[in-house]
Amino acid sequence: MNRRLLWKLCATVALGTLALFWTISFLGAETEQKMSFIAEEHQQTIESWGRTAERLYQSGDEQALSRWLEELQTQEQTWAAVVRSDIQPLAGSRLTDRFREGFRLGRSVEWKIHLYFSENPIMEVTFADPAIHFLVLLPDRMRPGTYLPQVKLMLKVALPLAVLVILCLVIYRHLMSPLRQLEIATRQFTEGNLGVRVRALLGNRNDELAALAETFDRMAERTGNLILTQRRLIADLSHELRTPLARIEMAVSCVQEGIDTQHLLPRIQRECGIMRNLVEDTLTLAWLENEKPSLGEETLDLTDLLDSILDDARYEFPDHTLVAELPDKAELRGSSHRALAQAIENVVRNACNYTPVGGTVRITLRADQRGYTLEVADQGPGVSADQLELIFKPFFRAVKARGYRPSGHGLGLSLARRQVEATGGWIQAENRAAGGLLMRLWLPMNRIEN
């Protein structure tokens, strides 16, 4: 089968996803890099603090320097100090000029700040004397990356959403263009334009939608031919009926004129037979051509079906006691023998699986005004109240039942519900007061009337 549309969509989604990931990664890295530096105005403020501290230090007024430091710490709610660094090499080692020039007690205002550290770094401004340093714990108001969470949210939510919307629009336009052509063609066809076709309108496109257009064209051609055939059939029937009708009309005229009718009555009878056969054959042909019937409705005896299922269950579970309370006859019309047999067999087998050895499984069938209620009660562990509906989900197994007795893959009850509903009934579960689980099935007597 041609899967070009699949590969085109896969390529579009894959390339769009790669572009999205690359864009998020690139913008995220660039944004974080640019937001990791102290703002220029804050750098200048810290530098001015350093110059002020250096001026007060050089004036020799330590009290003024101390008061200024206290005011700065109180104003900025931070820590600040002026310190001396005397580095003395030991054991005959030597300090290089590069080390002395690059030595710092804190960070330079131009350095990158690590945004993921919870604590603010200590910033440094070195005086003209490289052994004297002004240190300040970076105030919270100067910490870079204030809007980093919002930016990351934009990059992780808004940008992907925008890219995905654009990608969806591209895919939508690519898919809807031929579908609109199909919609227009279908509308024209229903309005009587039997010659409408779609494939030629799609140009050189060669994918699944083009194949759909070709299928539509074949359907339109076949349906158009069928309609024309029926029209021709009706026209031919009308033409064929004229001859026997004319003969009958002539025979009736002869009878009215008193002409001998002994040889005309058999002719009239033969012409009527020809007309009847012609009409019946024509109607049958039209029905077969138009309806293409498929007869699948069944009538069955639910009691006989249950007897057969219980016989198999007794053979399969000889260490269980199966007690059945069934009416002599329980007829279902418009049902499915195969679907009900498999559904009920799954319910009974499930009850036997979770009933301990030597336990009893009770099967009861009662009739009401519109259908039959089948109850299957086991002596197993039951299920918690919040799981009574979940046990009908595919692959779900109740917590109480896990490990209690090995069984299938959790598909039996989900399949049973779908099969019972397909025959017009329903199935539900409830916990018994005496322990165990009760499965209740309802099936309509006559689905055709319902």
TrEMBL record:
UniProt keywords (A-Z) are: ATP-binding, Cell membrane, Kinase, Membrane, Nucleotide-binding, Phosphoprotein, Transferase
The membrane spanning regions, by residue number, are none
Highest taxon listed in the record's lineage: Bacteria
Q: What class of enzyme is it?
A: transferase
Membrane-protein topology: Multi-pass membrane protein
Which cellular component appears as one GO term in the record?
plasma membrane
Query: Which SUPFAM superfamilies does the UniProt entry name for this protein?
Result: ATPase domain of HSP90 chaperone/DNA topoisomerase II/histidine kinase, HAMP domain-like, Homodimeric domain of signal transducing histidine kinase
Entry's localization field = Cell membrane
Instruction: Give the organism the record lists.
Output: Marinobacter salsuginis
This chain's protein is named histidine kinase
| EC number(s) from the headed UniProt entry | 2.7.13.3
Gene Ontology molecular function: ATP binding; phosphorelay sensor kinase activity
Where do the HAMP domain residues begin and end?
A: 173-228
Pfam families listed in its UniProt record? HAMP, HATPase_c, HisKA, HK_sensor
Q: For this protein, what reaction is catalysed?
A: ATP + protein L-histidine = ADP + protein N-phospho-L-histidine
Q: Histidine kinase domain location, by residue?
A: 236-447
Entry-linked SMART domains = HAMP, HATPase_c, HisKA
**CDD domains from the entry?**
HAMP, HisKA
